[in-house]
Amino acid sequence: MKAQNATLLFDPDATSSAAVARHLDFVDYEAEVPVHTHRKGQLIIALYGAVICRAENEIWIVPPHCAVWVPGGVPHSARATWNAHLNYLFIEPGAAALPEKCCTLAISPLIRELVDRLTHEKGEGPVDDHVARLTRVTLDELAAMPQQKLSLPVSAHPKIRAMADTLVSHPEDRSTIKEWAKRLALSERSLTRLMTRETGLTFGRWRQQLHLIIALRELASGVSVQNVAITLGYESVNAFITMFRKTMGSTPAHYFAEQKINTR
What we know:
alpha+beta, transcription regulation, AraC family transcriptional regulator, 9 helices, Jelly Rolls, 2 domains, AraC-bd, transcription
């Protein structure tokens, strides 16, 4: 039986409710969710596995215990790991004090449970007082959640986009910025300036952030630390763990243990 496109599951804009939630297990749906948009903003919560979103010339990672917020009207696409279990919360514009730009948010256990509870409501027709109160508490709590730095600026500039698309598909590529400049028919100095102007990051910092995003996705889907290090082209597992610890504050094992996720 052919997997379904998740965007065809239902229309979040068909209801005027302040918020409506849905649960998706991606074993039942196509991993690739094509570019689409809707009036309501969308909160994507990963219960297990991970998903990468593209919106506003950035790539956003949704590891377990975090969520990506996509404001209403923003075109976006996503790709989930095969084992991703997600909860979506679609929020009517103006119903909550949420950022006007896409971002990754930390998600408290309370919000996770509240959204999960709301997935059992149809969100169609009149909302009873109990569901309305649950929704209000959820939105109030959500507005207080801190942002996480789990995005990668990509840029619409054709040369930066070409390089980004290649490195997303082949993260093991260890070409230097000098080698990339030659590929893109630019001087090293010009590419350095273009990279900083378009992404706000140096090439080295940008590639490290890309590796972090891919690592979080792969580790969340159950790939071993050793295989992730190989996928990203690291000379040793220790070199990869050092990078991860410097950026995330703990080793992969400790990070996922804190998130109550077991890596295999």
